[in-house]
């Protein structure tokens, strides 16, 4: 296969993946006109239409879908081999793509990468903060970060953080003239800040547990956000109660800016884990990152 043909096929794969010539051109570092020419050249050489434009997106034709099924794994294998060759260099190198939640990105991933990056400038890491936590195989991520209890069994999972606890908190100004909730059911009488979940478009149901009894409570209030930071800000301003991982609000609690309630109903649960397909052969760069992230807080936290 000539180099030009490989370039054309890769361009087709990126356009089909992004479903947009604009996003694909930005990702490939080229212009939309040049990318359109590349796709037309490929279609003319094959004698079939591979992509069709609609008003909202670019979609693959039947012939394009068939080519994608063969092309994506083949190019992924080529990328893996190139990454393997890079191991012969003096220092690990390569590209690593990770999908993660905002909380894990700020509290775990970035602190580790900040320590690692100066010594390994040839490792390039892309963090995609996605509350929906995409399918890492379908979206061609090298790894993802999720809470330990929600990882598929066919994945390798490495613990990268301690157990977490949720904290239900409110500002002192919110509690002025209001009784504090004593049991989760009391939340029906309170104004709460809702979190919109990207996975199903629904609202997060607050989760509680005590003495083996589990509860999920749907709360109501004036504001709904899809950002933890915005929820905390609104909570600090006295617009309602919020439920957040306790490390996010710990400083505010210690400073008296927020007051914790329902503490007995918020036990620890499995923290963040890095996960990746069991069939993946880790590159030197990826293996180095895993070791940098691995949580060593106790003997049982090395892996799951």
Number of helices: 9
Termini separation? 43 Å
What is the helix content? 25-40%
Main beta sheet: 5 strands, mixed
CA-based gyration radius: 24 Å
Strand order across the largest sheet: 4-3-5-14-6
Please count the beta strands (DSSP E, at least 2 residues each).
Answer: 14
Structural class: alpha/beta
Report the sheet-strand fraction: 15-25%
Overall geometry: elongated
Query: What is the N-to-C order of secondary-structure elements (H for helix, E for strand)?
Result: HHHEEHEHEEEEHEEEEHEHEEH
Integer average pLDDT: 86
Low-pLDDT runs of 5+ residues are 299-304
What would you say about this model in short?
Mean pLDDT is 86; it is low at 299-304. By secondary structure, the chain is α/β, with parallel strands linked by helices.
Notes on the structure:
- The chain has 304 residues and is α/β, with parallel strands linked by helices.
- Helix 1 packs across helix 3 (32-46) and helix 2 crosses helix 3.
- It has nine helices and 14 strands.
- The chain has a five-stranded mixed sheet, covered by helices on one side.
- The chain is elongated and about 75 Å long.
- Helices cover 36% and strands 20% of the residues.
- Residues 299-304 have low confidence and may be disordered.
Properties at a glance:
disordered C terminus, alpha/beta, 304 residues
How are the elements arranged and paired?
Layout: H1 3-18, H2 21-28, H3 32-46, E1 51-53, E2 58-60, H4 62-85, E3 94-100, H5 102-116, E4 123-129, E5 143-147, E6 155-159, E7 166-170, H6 172-175, E8 194-195, E9 206-210, E10 213-217, E11 224-225, H7 228-236, E12 242-245, H8 246-254, E13 259-261, E14 272-277, H9 284-293
Parallel strand pairs: 3-4, 3-5, 8-11
Antiparallel strand pairs: 1-2, 5-14, 6-14, 7-12, 7-13, 9-10
